[in-house]
Amino acid sequence: MNRVANCNRSDPWLAHTVRIDRVTPEIPGVATYDLIFEGDAGGLSFQPGQFNMLYLPGVGECAISISGDPADGSRLPHTIRVAGNVTQELARLPVGATIGLRGPFGSHWPVEECAGKDVILVAGGIGLPPLRPVIYRLLAGRAQYGRLSLLYGSRTPDTLLYTDQFDEWRSRGLDIEVTVDRTNDGWNGHVGVVTLLLERLAVPRPENTLLFTCGPEVMMWYVLQTARSRGLPAENFWMSLERNMNCAIGLCGHCQFGPEFICKDGPVLRFDRIAPFLKVEQL
Amino acid sequence: MDFLPSDELDSLIATLRRDGYRVVAPTIDQEAIVYDEIESADDLPRGWTDRQEAAHYRLERRGDDAYFGYVVGPHSWKRFLFPPQAIMATADRTGDGWEFQTPRPDDVRFAFLGVRACEIAAIEVQDRTFLHGPYVDPIYAQRRKNALLIAVNCTQAASTCFCTSMNTGPRCHSGFDLALTEIAGGFTVEVGSDAGRKLLDRLTTTAADQTQQDAAAAARQQAVDEVARNKGMDTTDIRDLLLGNLEHARWDDVASRCLSCTNCTMVCPTCFCASVDEVTDLREEHVERRRQWDSCFNVDFSYMNGGVIRNDTRSRYRQWLTHKLASWHDQFGVSGCVGCGRCITWCPVGIDLRDEVAAIRGS
Question: If you write DSSP's letter for every residue of A70-127 in order, what string do you get?
């Protein structure tokens, strides 16, 4: 079902050489780095939901979801929030700087299972970047799918990501509902948690609706409870989890969540597989 | 079956060394029997034995001059196949960027002399981790391919041994090149591979006669009898038992004793947690990515985004035990525990996982 696609399976510690081709500031503390391969190395073949280890020699690596279009592996956008040593150092690098890239790693959102179905994407804050590749892929083959909805929540209006793409996505057949926790002057949209959007969404055929969610764990938990109450079966939910990543190849032990290695069995996991472990504190 | 006289042990070691093997065997260091490179049979702990209990390890002289009259110490063979420190990759500054490389694993060939049945089982458990997953560890793969295993059948058991509960011993059945059983005057030898046969053919042996075979069987039986007297571990449905009891009161109880010191993970022959970090020269022009053994008991092992997920001893001990005895089955299709008892001996406060499992089972 979820397969790992890695071009470096025989030499997983060898980093590709990539250059920062463009840096796009998004919201305070968050920027998108477009990475391209050196010379004729072509591009990376990746699936939506997979991540790369971005390597800054002497500093370390960080695990970042690929947030670009899987159809174009030659330009790899990574939307990154400054959260620790590596991301802080990355934020100081100029356009043209060289870094290392290992990947792609991990399981992917099962877009292949969406044919003929309705799809609901629920994103919270920095959880939208790992879902954007799904949007690209769904819209590229729009006719194959039923209703497509994006429910997106963020803290405030000025922390919403990718808003300049919403008009295009809507015109190509993605319904988008946005909410914020706290409003400011000039906001005419929803206010409240993203689960409220899910409560209000029309779900005409829950058995044939898949739901992909990414965001803070507590948000995903409540999204899944709400989806259950709307009649979606537990096998129809997929979520993206996060843990300390060091090797990204399932051999260092850091990323374990119960029996799952988040780097290898995840980060995208089907809810019913991990349901018993989600509410165990400090697992 | 062949018989190898005691004085041929030196020939065995010398032959291996001439063939370019680094012979690693038990030897005494700092009042413990550890694994290190040896040059001759004189380096073996001849005439010594060990007394082991929870939080207790002492060496004592034996009444005889047996070469292998003890069980397992704080080292396991993983320190040679999965070395405590290793360079996984390098980065060198070029004019305007970096050049990344991965070093070729060195071509070292180890001959392990004195491998116990539980240790063969542990190596085979680590084979699943490092060789049979979607990613192969290049260092482990190379060393494992080159390694020669000369096993020794146990002729006694420590109080901490529970190999029979985990179905890993005390008899060596497979996975070795040669297997020795020590009797008076020498060893009966079972051949386990072509490489073992070829090696044995270069030594002076005789066919083992009935008396020698009977003595070997009796020696092996002594180990069986001794381990049968030990506390065991009931592994019935242990995966569901532990993963279904993640909030059991026993975790609080063990947490009040556990020091989170990481000893158990260091001595365990199947633990594989590690961390790769950066080692750089002063001008940051040459960087090495060094992998070191780590432990799920270390406080920052589960650090993420400004916080530690397993932020107390209770959650870290629970992680270790449920991984070792339960999740390992999901991940690798086998238990992570081989019943060697090292974690019991080397725990400074004497936590015995046989007792912990029994408490959760409620017996």
Answer: TT-TTEEEEEEE--SHHHHHHTTPPTT-EEEEEEEES----GGG-TTSEEEEEEEGGG
Please indicate if any CB of chain A lies within 8 Å of the CB of B303. Answer: yes
Q: Does residue B245 share a domain with residue B185? A: no
Shortest CA distance from B94: residue in chain A: A98
- B92 found inside a domain: no
Q: Is B302 on the interface with A (CB under 8 A)?
A: yes
Query: Looking at the complex, does the CB of residue B206 fall below 8 Å from at least one CB of chain A?
Result: no
Q: Which residues of A touch B336 (CB under 8 A)?
A: none
Task: Report d(CA A61, CA A80) in Å as an integer.
Answer: 13
A275 touches chain B (CB under 8 A): no
The residue ranges of chain B whose pLDDT is under 50 are: none
Whether the per-residue pLDDT at A257 is higher than 50: the answer is yes
Is A3 a residue whose pLDDT tops 80? no
What pLDDT does A160 receive?
96
Query: Angle B96-B102-B104 (CA atoms, 0-180°, nearest 5)?
Result: 140
- What is the complex's ipTM, to 2 decimals? 0.95
Comparing CA positions, the residue from A105, A128, A103 lying closest to residue A212 is A128
| Each residue's pLDDT tens digit, B46-105 | 999 999 999 999 999 999 999 999 999 999 999 999 999 999 999 999 988 999 999 998
Residues in chain A: 283
CATH number, domain A16-105: 2.40.30.10
B76 and B47 in a single domain? The answer is yes
B249 and B169 share a domain?
no
CA nearest to B136 within chain A? A10
The span from the CA of B115 to the CA of B321, in Å, is 25
Taking CB atoms and an 8 Å limit, are A254 and B330 in contact across chains?
no
Chain A CB contacts of B125 below 8 Å = none
The answer to whether A196 faces chain B, any CB pair under 8 Å, is no
Say yes or no: B265 and B319 in one domain: yes
**What pLDDT score was predicted for residue B37?**
98
- Same domain as B217, residue B243: no
Inter-chain residue contact A243 with B309, CB threshold 8 Å = yes
Q: What is the pLDDT of residue A4?
A: 31
Q: What is the pLDDT of residues A144-160, one digit of tens each?
A: 999 999 999 999 999 99
Contacts of A253 in chain B (CB under 8 A): 272-274, 294, 296, 301
Please report the pLDDT score of residue B64 as a whole number: 96
- Supply the DSSP symbol for A2: -
CB contact at 8 A, A32 and A26: yes
Q: Where in chain A are the domains? A: 16-105, 111-240
d(CA A77, CA A98): 15
| pLDDT given at position B363 | 58
Would you state the pLDDT for residue A5? 35
Inspect the interface and report whether the beta carbons of A11 and B138 lie closer than 8 Å: yes
CB-CB under 8 Å, A13 with B88: yes
Q: How far does B339 lie from chain A, in Å, by closest CA?
A: 21
Q: What is the pLDDT of residue A8?
A: 59
Whether chain A has a CB inside 8 Å of the CB on B3: the answer is: no
Pair A78, A65: CB distance under 8 Å: yes
Question: For a pLDDT cut of 70, what percent of chain A falls above it?
Answer: 96
Claim to verify: residue B148 and residue B69 sit in the same structural domain: yes
